[in-house]
Amino acid sequence: MCDDLMSGANSTTEALDLQAQLIQMLSSAGLVLKNGLLIAMNSRTDSRRFAVGEREIATDGKLLLLGSESGYIKGVGLQSHEQIFQHQCESAVNCCCFISSSSVAFGTQDGKVWLFDLRARQPVTIWEESNSPVLCLISVKNGVFCGRADGSSSYIAFVTDRCIQLTGPGFDPVYCMAYNGESIYTGSRDGLIRKYNVQF
């Protein structure tokens, strides 16, 4: 970024003036440029580092969810590139989705569906309706639809006791699901995409 600014300068003096302006702008924003990295200084004088990226747009305040075979669900800040939280589960985390800005759901290899509070950084509820691995999850109207390795697809409501079971592909795993506001779509190993009109 600094080199790009300098290449537009007509003289060494102009380049030094541009560099001084850049340093002053960064300093007023509480930033320091060192070796191509921006270092943000806070009031406690500790720092966090993040790479300067021209392609990075609107990453502030956004969280990336990661599930791992080792059983961890992790949250990483997109702008800071730092881990925000981590939670260890008893089984591999196969899928995850945001429910709201403060909660996420994820499914594990042992068949559990977890509702996790990001503020408290702990599980709120765990559903154990089947031992079949949860392969996909989508958030739909105060609940989640989950697709499993045994071919079943079901809806778990967070607030009510309502349960919806979709007729599926028999014993072929359901790998993906989508919702367009009216219908649920599933994709499974048998190569078919199924459409369900569900009334909530």
From TrEMBL:
InterPro entries reported in the protein's UniProt record: WD40/YVTN_repeat-like_dom_sf, WD40_repeat_dom_sf, WD40_rpt, WD_repeat_multifunction
SMART domains the UniProt entry points to: WD40
Entry keyword Repeat: yes
Record's keyword terms, sorted: Proteasome, Repeat, WD repeat
Pfam families tied to this protein: WD40
GO cellular component, one term: proteasome complex
Family under the similarity heading: Belongs to the WD repeat PAAF1/RPN14 family.
This protein's name: Proteasomal ATPase-associated factor 1
Organism of provenance: Caerostris extrusa
Gene designation: PAAF1
